[in-house]
Design goal:
The protein has 383 residues and is α+β, with helices and mostly antiparallel strands. 27% of the residues lie in helices and 27% in strands. It folds into three domains: 81 residues, Helix Hairpins, CATH 1.10.287.110; 81 residues, Sandwich (HSP40/DNAj peptide-binding domain); 112 residues, Sandwich (HSP40/DNAj peptide-binding domain), CATH 2.60.260. About 7% of the residues have low confidence.
């Protein structure tokens, strides 16, 4: 004959719910299979205590038990609803549900508490943005249209029809894991795997949402705004937490990862935060000097070219380079002078150059001129 459930837990018939839970916890800690390596007697006591606890903790089952005894739990008499004896996996599920989640026994005895089932995270989304040099210099804001899974508004992501709710999986107790115990010549083995009843979700949906079919997500187009800071370089990326695909059934969303490609700008050569612009000058412009307009990422600027400027001479505009992504300090813009020589001479230009050749004098030695120019170039680039 089955033992009295109150006697199994060692409590009187008027015991409170907290007293019943405390008594069960004490017995479960004593007879848990993880603490009684292969002891079948301890396993039976653990299952028996769990069965008694599961009846007495539930007001409806307890009322039927008090009125009809064990028959009230098996469908006999006037009671409704059935109750069957626990196997080990069900007993472990009850214990893990109420005492330490997945960690269960290990968490109570110093094994380190492990969290209950982690909700499945949504996927990350990767996008590539093409930037102009002006956008790199000044920063920009991009708005992207993305079509992806978002949380269902009808069920608020739960997957259950509005007005209903999910229920804890009876097999795994909400952990999403199923444990199976088996005996071998080496002793008892407990295997852990995804719960087959809830597909490792930990909850069961009796009445799914009609819109998302229980997934908690629907496919919609949405707009995401990306703030691009000044100074972004090729292959840099920004991670926007939680802007990726929504997780199923209230799972956390993935991230949006924006990678950047900087378009080539034929006006400039980039060296980190510094830029180089080649200013083409005719012979007369280089000889006479003057003010010339040059492009920068922030608009045109005027530079003064000295009389007698030689090719490869450098004029540096500070603060006209690109900002540093870390501290915001701007690099420099090096304006490199290039002397242009006409390839086709008109009669008038040829006559003028012949007259000039008679008065311009002899050029300096190539070795000395080259050395002075190269020194200026190395100085400009910090060599």
């Amino acid at each position: 004959m089955p033992q009295d459930y109150y006697a199994v837990l060692g409590v009187d018939r008027g015991a409170s719910k907290s007293a019943i839970k405390k008594a069960y916890r004490k017995l479960a800690m004593q007879f848990h299979t993880d603490r009684n390596d292969g002891d079948t007697g301890a396993e039976d006591k653990f299952k028996e205590a769990t069965e008694a606890y599961e009846v007495l903790r539930d007001p409806n089952k307890r009322q039927r038990y008090d009125q009809f005894g064990h028959a009230g739990l098996s469908g006999a008499g006037r009671a409704t609803g059935g109750f069957t004896h626990f196997d080990l996996s069900e007993a472990l599920g009850v214990f893990m549900r109420d005492f330490g989640g997945r960690g269960g026994f290990d968490a109570i005895f110093g094994g380190g508490q492990r969290s209950r089932r982690q909700r499945r995270r949504g996927q990350d989304v990767r996008v590539t943005l093409d930037l102009t040099l002006e956008e790199v210099a000044n920063g920009t804001t991009r708005k992207l249209k993305l079509k992806s899974l978002v949380r269902c508004a009808d069920c608020e992501g739960s997957g259950a029809r509005a007005g209903t709710s999910t229920t804890i999986c009876p097999m795994c107790g909400g952990t999403g894991e199923a444990r199976r115990a088996s005996q071998s010549i080496f002793g008892q083995f407990i295997s852990v795997g995804p719960c087959p009843q809830c597909d490792a979700e930990g909850t069961i949906i009796a009445d799914p949402c009609a819109r998302c079919q229980g997934d908690g997500r629907v496919r919609e187009e949405r707009v995401v705004e990306i703030e691009v800071p000044p100074g972004i370089a090729e292959n840099n990326y920004i991670t926007l937490k939680g802007k990726g695909v929504a997780g199923p059934r209230k799972g956390p969303p993935g991230d949006l990862i924006a990678e950047f490609v900087v378009q080539e700008d034929e006006r400039f050569t980039r060296h980190g935060d510094d830029l180089v612009h080649d200013l083409m000058l005719s012979f007369s412009e280089a000889a006479l000097g003057g003010d010339f307009a040059v492009p920068t990422p922030y608009g045109e600027e005027t530079v003064r070219i000295s009389q007698g400027t030689q090719t490869d001479s450098i004029v540096t505009l500070r603060g006209m380079g690109l900002p540093n992504i870390n501290d915001g300090r701007k690099g420099v813009l090096h304006v490199r002078c290039r002397i242009w020589t006409p390839t086709q001479l008109t009669p008038e230009l040829e006559s003028a150059l012949k007259k000039l050749s008679k008065v311009e004098g002899s050029p300096p030695s190539a070795e000395g001129l080259g050395k002075r120019v190269w020194d200026k170039v190395k100085e400009a680039f910090g060599a």
